[in-house]
Specification:
Blueprint: E1 7-12, H1 14-18, H2 26-41, E2 45-50, H3 53-60, H4 70-93, E3 99-104, H5 107-110, H6 112-127, E4 131-136, H7 143-147, H8 150-161, E5 165-170, H9 199-205, H10 217-229, E6 233-238, H11 244-249, E7 256-258, H12 264-274, E8 281-284, H13 286-293, E9 303-307, E10 315-319, E11 325-330, H14 335-341, H15 349-353, E12 367-369
Parallel strand pairs: 1-2, 1-5, 2-4, 3-4, 5-6, 8-10
Antiparallel strand pairs: 6-7, 8-9, 10-11, 11-12
Helix pairs in contact: 2-4, 3-4, 8-10
């Protein structure tokens, strides 16, 4: 089975998980899990961003009459999240797949150090063929739980793992030219292109949240806009559509497609290049310079000098002994740590520091080579 996209983020909304009813719909969920498992068997990497914790908690407690205040919703999420994860573990287990729970909030992604930690964790899970199941940390979140940010969170996760497809599954077949509940002439848009999403489409998306979830079409449009600008093609589609995940992964017409506005490489380059403050610098020896030119990661054994103050996850510039800038990248160790391990082999890092964040000073995936700049 051939797929056009190899690294996907699938976001399941509450309405998709319940089939529009008040309870979770295991039969519908297992069908979606089956499709994601087939992608995994074909060598694709799938991360799942799942809503539904509040609905699962409400069902588990027998649908109590509760105020709409934030603490009540956080309580329901706390009850429902382990139940939801247990269901996913059981269903993915039918196909021999292991799952992992990852709870994130905006703060985990907006700061460079925590961004790098989250990225490394997700990539490590995918490398082991584990399915990360990501959710907003609803039991402590306040602003996020009110705005239904799992939609936008899915776009941020797509950026973290360099996904080439973000699939937002909902109870609607896609984005319409107007609100189909009010305008019978509204038409489904198969594709949205151009540098900006037209104002009339934002108006058509509306701002009325769903009854079971905390989001709506407007948050999906926000997520699609963020993801496509970061180099990820996005599709909004109905979760109950037959074979919807597999069809989207094959780039078949389904729902509304938002083509990527930049390549993933261009997006990553912009992020890394814009992050350097001109201060953090690493000087490497000739052997390391040649290795970087071949596309290798930067190891501590090749580092001869560290200047400037920088933290783990900051962008630093890499120079050779003649002052030529070779690369910029996101560093795995802060300046003080790197000064202690420079010139050492990677297997000495933990003995020197008492801990380690990996063998590389800068991993090749987090590096942009041959940057032209001042000496």
């Amino acid at each position: 089975m051939s797929f056009a996209y190899r690294r996907l983020v699938v976001k399941l909304g509450t309405s998709t998980l319940t089939g529009g009813a008040a309870r979770l719909a295991p039969a519908q969920i297992v069908e979606l899990v089956r499709q994601m498992a087939l992608l995994g068997e074909a060598g694709c990497e799938v991360s799942l961003v799942s809503s539904g914790a509040i609905a699962a908690g409400r069902e588990r407690l027998g649908f109590p009459a509760l105020p709409r205040a934030i603490p009540a919703r956080q309580m329901l999420a706390a009850v429902g999240q382990p139940r939801l994860m247990a269901l996913y573990e059981q269903l993915f287990g039918l196909y021999g797949r292991t799952v992992a729970q990852v709870l994130l909030a905006r703060g985990d992604i907006s700061h460079r150090r925590s961004y790098l930690n989250a990225r490394n964790t997700l990539r490590a899970l995918l490398d082991q063929r584990v399915v990360p199941i990501v959710n907003e940390n609803d039991t402590t979140a306040t602003e996020e739980i009110r705005v239904g940010d799992n939609d936008n969170l899915s776009a941020l996760v797509a950026n973290l793992v360099d996904a080439d497809l973000l699939l937002l599954l909902t109870d609607q077949p896609g984005l319409f030219t107007a609100d189909p509940r009010r305008d019978p002439s509204a038409k489904l848009l198969p594709e949205v292109t151009g540098p900006d999403i037209p104002p009339e489409l934002w108006e058509a998306a509306g701002r009325t949240p769903g009854q079971l979830g905390t989001g709506g079409m407007v948050t999906k449009l926000q997520a699609a806009d963020l993801a496509r600008r970061s180099g990820t093609t996005t599709v909004i589609a109905r979760g109950s559509e037959p074979e919807v995940i597999l069809r989207a992964a094959r780039a078949e017409p389904v729902g509304t497609r938002f083509p990527a506005q930049a390549s993933l490489l261009e997006s990553r380059k912009r992020y890394i290049l814009s992050g350097w403050d001109g201060k953090g610098r690493i000087v490497v020896d000739e052997g390391a310079a040649r290795a970087l030119g071949r596309g290798s990661s930067l190891l501590p054994v090749g580092v001869v000098e560290v200047t400037g103050a920088f933290e783990r996850g900051d962008t630093v510039a890499v120079f050779d002994g003649d002052g030529r800038e070779l690369a910029r990248g996101l560093v795995n160790y802060h300046a003080g740590e790197l000064a202690r391990i420079l010139g050492q082999h990677s297997d000495q890092i933990e003995a020197t520091l008492g801990y380690g964040y990996g063998d590389e000073v800068i991993h090749r995936d987090h590096m942009v080579l041959q940057v032209t700049g001042d000496k």
